[in-house]
Design goal:
The complex is a heterodimer. By secondary structure, chain A is α/β, with parallel strands linked by helices. Chain A has helices spanning 11-22, 55-68, 130-133, 148-158, 178-186, 280-301, 310-318, and strands at 2-7, 27-31, 72-75, 78-84, 87-92, 95-104, 109-110, 126-127, 141-146, 164-168, 190-193, 196-203, 207-214, 220-224, 227-231, 234-235, 266-268. In chain A, α1 (11-22) runs parallel beside α6. The longest helix of chain A has 22 residues, at 280-301. The two termini of chain A are 41 Å apart. Chain B folds into 2 domains: 5-115 and 241-308, FAD/NAD(P)-binding domain; 118-236, 3-Layer(bba) Sandwich (FAD/NAD(P)-binding domain), CATH 3.50.50. The chains are: A alpha/beta, B alpha/beta. Chain B: This is Thioredoxin reductase.
Chain lengths: 319, 309
């Protein structure tokens, strides 16, 4: 039996495994792929301490670090997670694996537009993360295809560096928080493109433009852009844990400040949680917290002293 | 008095402050970082960092911090190396005084971290810098060929002990209880080192020596007996306290002086955010601090958008 099974092999999964293995626990990481959502990014410039690194490479480096401490990896897609007597049972590809605790780190993926050209130009002009990629479009023309506050946030961020930001809407209005919307369209370089539905993305090495259907006149036209930011939210595949831990209305795993889920012994970190920001360094931070909280829980469950805070230590010294 | 009003001031230059600076700079907020006279935070006095994700070969603490400073500066963060001495958060723009200058900002991220705790004995105070230290990485070299003691039983204490074996002939770890608090990997390493010995259930009653430390008077918690332990140097590694002296009366602090966020990184004052060890007495990892620094920058960015809506 494993001490801890970690579901997911991205930045969060490998970081959690590293912290647990360094505390001497037997850890198994199960992942459908290595890297997860960070793989969509060719160049991460905002991971602290690392000048520039590809998303996949970052996960690989953390994996290497974790495997040095004895973490094992199993490639597989987790089908279900169940609570058994005194343990959890994770099934993947028809086999069952037992552990005393579980950390969920299976991430999430941005919702695709699902149109021709999108797959081809991912990471070559089609982006799903303005925080990650905005600096790459300095003085360029970009389109924002999306809905609500997340699209408004994205466009606002881009408005500081891009030459022109075209915000697409299928109607004549853009619906977001009134304050955000007001702030957005006050920017001189932000423009609303109304009655527009994107049908296709084209280009050569990188994106050159998109074909738009006018939803009023039903005519198709081309619009030249250097980049397209898709902000349709994320898809979370929480099917495997839906019957065991509490999810929010977006099917994200609800966690508390210690990364605990609604079930004792199951923790979660990274993009599958209900935290509103999705960044590699946040995932890593959450994963370290989840791992230490998990270690603490296991220690206490076995009647040993867990991690003590400075507080209790201060008290002890004074006593 | 400077008339410029910054969008964002970040107080502190450890992993939390510099990650916040990196994100804020990339979002064109042109942050001003009040980095402190001893910049870089606690990692500057840490040797090998093995658990910062992304560095399979490990990295030296100061090297990691230098990389973070360069990264933040590359995207336009401005760092000044003065201590913040006073703040005024009662009205906007917020004021942060440092190095005889007042700096104004629409928002502030507090990332001042935590500092080492001392036992609080008068003899400890008297002999500090004269054989009594809280930083083996800083002072370990001075104890070449001597017998030294380390007070504490956590990861930091054992790391100090291991480091000291490079110089000292013998390192005695004094632990208050019958069990070490450190992680298994650190315990395995420390206990396997022939120069390190651990004494359990021991408390320090007095630091001995006239002008320079010569030893410790220690008491056994079980038998109640005291004895003298000769030591040419002693390192106190018993934990930390938050650096929140200048924020007293400005924002809500908890009983131990930590800043408790109201929601994610927000404090009770709108526009003031908090990240890192100054709010976290429990996990205290470089990467958890960095993650919180990132969140604070994103929260501040959102606040500035909404505020100027």
């Amino acid at each position: 039996m494993n001490d801890v099974i970690i579901v997911g092999a991205g930045v969060a999964g490998w970081t959690a495994s590293l912290y647990l293995a360094r505390r001497g626990l037997k850890v198994l990481v199960i992942g459908k792929d290595v890297g997860g959502q960070a793989n969509y990014t060719d160049a991460i410039e905002n991971y602290p301490g690392v000048e520039e690194i590809g998303g996949l490479e970052l996960s690989r480096q953390i994996r290497k670090q974790a495997e040095k401490h004895g973490v094992e990896f199993l490639q597989g897609e987790v089908g279900a997670l169940k609570a058994g007597p005194n343990c959890f049972v994770t099934s993947a590809y028809g086999r069952q694996y037992k552990s005393a605790a579980v950390i969920l780190a299976y991430g999430k993926t941005p919702q695709d537009l699902g149109i021709p050209g999108e797959e081809q130009f991912k990471g070559r002009g089609v982006s799903y993360c303005a925080t990650c990629d905005a600096p790459l479009f300095k003085n360029k023309v970009v389109a924002v295809v999306g809905i609500g506050d997340i699209a408004a946030d994205c466009a606002l961020l881009l408005s500081k560096s891009a030459k022109k930001i075209l915000v697409l809407s299928k109607t004549d209005k853009f619906v977001a928080h009134p304050q955000l919307s007001k702030a957005l369209f006050k920017k001189p370089n932000v423009e609303l493109v109304g009655f527009a539905q994107v049908q296709e993305i084209y280009g050569d090495q990188t994106v050159k433009g998109m074909k738009l259907l006018n939803t009023r006149t039903e005519t198709v036209s081309s619009l030249a852009v250097d980049g397209i930011f898709v902000e349709l939210g994320y898809v979370v595949n929480s099917q495997m844990v839906a019957n065991i831990v509490k999810l929010d209305d977006r099917r994200q795993v609800i966690v508390n400040a210690d990364q605990q889920t609604s079930v004792l012994g199951i923790f979660a970190a990274g993009d599958c949680t209900n935290r509103n920001y999705k960044q590699a360094v946040i995932s890593a931070g959450e994963a370290a917290t989840a791992a230490l909280a998990c270690y603490d829980w296991l220690q206490q469950a076995q009647g040993a002293a867990g991690i003590t805070s400075d507080w209790t230590q201060i008290k002890r010294i004074k006593n | 008095m400077k008339s410029e009003i910054h969008k964002l001031i970040i107080i502190g230059s450890g992993p939390a402050g510099l990650t916040a600076a990196l994100y804020a700079a990339r979002a064109n907020l042109n942050p001003l970082v009040i980095g402190g006279l001893t910049f870089g935070g606690q990692l500057m006095i840490t040797t090998e960092v093995e658990n910062f994700p992304g560095f399979p070969k490990g990295v030296q603490g100061p090297e990691l911090m230098q990389a973070m400073i360069e990264q933040a500066e590359r995207f336009g963060a401005k760092i000044i190396y003065d201590d913040a001495t006073k703040v005024d958060f009662s009205h906007k723009p917020f004021k942060v005084s440092a190095g005889h200058e007042d700096h104004m900002a629409e928002s502030v991220i507090i990332a001042t971290g935590a500092s080492s705790l001392w036992l609080g004995l008068p003899s400890e105070e008297r002999l500090r810098g004269k054989g009594v230290s809280s930083c083996a990485t800083c002072d370990g070299f001075f104890f070449k060929g001597k017998e030294v003691a380390v007070i504490g039983g956590g990861d930091a204490a054992l790391e100090e002990a291991l480091y000291l074996t490079k110089f000292a002939t013998k390192v005695t770890v004094l632990n208050r209880s019958d069990k070490l608090r450190a992680s298994k990997i650190m315990q395995d390493r420390a206990l396997a080192n022939p120069k390190i010995g651990v004494l359990y259930n021991k408390t320090v009653e007095e630091f001995l020596g006239a002008d320079y430390l010569t030893g410790l008077r220690i008491k056994d918690a079980v038998s109640g007996q005291t004895e003298e332990l000769p030591a040419g140097g002693t390192f106190v590694a018993i934990g930390h306290k938050p650096n929140t002296e200048i924020f007293k009366g400005q924002i809500t602090l908890d009983a131990k002086g930590y800043i408790e966020p109201t929601d994610q990184t927000k404090t009770n004052v709108a526009g003031i955010f908090v990240a890192g060890d100054v709010r976290d007495y429990r996990y205290r990892q470089a990467v958890t601090a960095a993650g919180m620094g990132c969140m604070a920058a994103l929260d501040a960015e959102k606040y500035l958008h909404m505020d100027q809506g």
